[in-house]
Amino acid sequence: MADILVIDDDDIFRDVLVGALQHAGHTVRQATNGIEGLRMFQEQPADLVMTDIVMPEKEGLDMILDLRREFPKVRIIAMSGGLAHDPKLYLHMAEKFGAAAVLAKPFDLDRLRRTVEETLAK
After folding, report:
1. CATH label of the domain that carries residue 26
2. Gap between the Cα atoms of 107 and 31, Å rounded
3. pLDDT (tens digit per residue) in 53-90
4. Which end of the chain has the lower number of beta carbons within 10 A, N or C?
5. How high is the pLDDT of residue 90?
6. Helix (H, G, I), strand (E, B) or coil at 104
7. If DSSP codes are grouped into helix, strand and coil, which group holds residue 58?
8. How deeply is 96 buried, as exposed, middle or buried, from its count of CB atoms within 10 A (0-12, 13-18, 19+)?
9. Count of domains in the chain?
C-alpha cells in the first residue's frame, strides 16, 4: 500500500483519518500544521499528502504551493470544512494550486477510500 502524510490541526479528526487509512493497509505519518508537515515530507517524501486548508502556523494552501515548488510530482488531497467561510472556495483554490483531489469536511470513510485510491492511481 502507500505511505501517506496526513496534516491536520484537529486531533480527533486526524486520529480518525489516520486510523481509517491504516485499517486500509497504508503506512501513515501525521503532522499538526504545515510547517511540521513540510519538514516531515522534506526528510522523507510520501506517496500522498493529505492536508487540511485552515490551520495555524502554515495554512494548507501555502503548504500545497511549497510542495509543488519543491516536489512537482507529489500527489496531494486537500481537505476543508471552511470554518466561517465556504469550504468550496478553499477547495477550489487548492485545486488551482495543484491539489489532485479535494474533500469537503465532513466526508464519510467510503468517500475517503475512493478519493485516496483514485489519487494514488493517477
Report:
1. 3.40.50.2300
2. 20
3. 988 888 899 999 999 999 999 999 999 986 555 667 88
4. C
5. 84
6. strand
7. coil
8. exposed
9. 1
Would you say 113 and 87 are in contact if contact means Cβ atoms under 8 Å apart? no
Q: Which residue has the cell 511540521?
A: 36
pLDDT digits (tens, 9 = 90+) for 98-116: 999 999 988 999 999 999 9
Q: How many CB atoms lie within 10 A of CB 122?
A: 7
CB–CB of 67/49 below 8 Å? Answer: yes
Q: How far apart are CA 106 and CA 111, in angstroms?
A: 10
The domain containing residue 37 runs over which residues?
A: 3-121
> How is residue 106 written as a grid cell?
465532513
Average pLDDT score, the chain: 93
Strands (E), the chain: 3-7, 27-31, 48-52, 75-80, 101-104
- Between CA 80 and CA 12 the distance in angstroms is 15
Predicted TM-score of the model (pTM): 0.94
Residue 50's region, left for phi above 0, alpha for psi from -120 to 50, else beta, is beta
